[in-house]
Amino acid sequence: MPILINVFTLLFTIIAMECFSWFIHKYLFHGMLWFLHKSHHQKAKSFFEWNDLFALFFAVLSLYLMFTDRENFGYRFFIGLGITLYGLIYFVVHDWFVHRRFKTFKSNNAYLRAVRKAHKIHHKNRGKDNGRAFGLLFVRKNLLENQ
Ligand SMILES: [Zn+2]
Ligand SMILES: [Zn+2]
User: Fold this and answer.
1) CA-CA distance, 120 to 109, in Å (whole number)?
2) pLDDT tens sequence across 42-94
3) Cα of 106 from ligand 1 centre, angstroms
4) Ligand 2 centroid vs 57 CA: distance in angstroms?
5) By percentage, how much of the chain surpasses pLDDT 90?
6) Which ligand is nearest to the CA of 118?
7) Mean pLDDT over the full length of the chain
8) DSSP string covering the chain, please?
9) CB atoms within 10 A of CB 144
10) Alpha carbons 20 and 13: distance in angstroms, whole number
11) Is pLDDT of 147 > 80?
12) Residue 124 — φ and ψ, nearest 5°?
């Protein structure tokens, strides 16, 4: 049943990426990589931020995984595809909806509003230390209920 394994690998990668990005956001971006991530906690001076390099890094990594496994469509291909899909979800929810890099996406969806509320809590702190809410897609139930 390779198809089931592939679907599982894909879904697992997407969920693992959310956990992984919570981890690197908390311990690397607000740690030794703060010099790049800082740009995302300040008022944007231009459309691109140094922080975008992280997205570029994951795009290159996922393309590499898919490209090198393009002939047998093994687990590396589906991990790469999962990273790509997570990147797209992250871009749409974080950059497009929450930060409004393009002013074209509005929604009253309760889940999306809870995600935005949680991420605004993260951005309340402009500094490196004492941050909160490092994840993006998993939101606390009370944020969903207090709408
Ligand atoms: Zn941050
Ligand atoms: Zn943000």
Assistant:
1) 16
2) 987 899 999 999 999 999 999 999 999 999 999 999 999 999 999 999 999 99
3) 23
4) 17
5) 87
6) 2
7) 94
8) -HHHHHHHHHHHHHHHHHHHHHHHIIIIIIIITHHHHHHHHS--SSS--TTHHHHHHHHHHHHHHHHHTTTTT-HHHHHHHHHHHHHHHHIIIIIIIIS-SSTT-----HHHHHHHHHHHHHHH--SSSS-----SS---HHHHH--
9) 15
10) 10
11) no
12) -55, -35
Question: Cα of 94 to ligand 2 centre, how many Å?
Answer: 6
CA distance 101 to 97: 8
Q: Could you tell me the distance, in angstroms and rounded to a whole number, from the CA of residue 33 to the centre of ligand 1?
A: 11
Which ligand sits closest to the CA of 133? 1
Q: Which two tokens stand for residue 36?
A: 């790049």
For residue 17, the CA-to-ligand 2 centroid distance in Å is 16
How far does CA 63 lie from the centroid of its chain?
A: 17
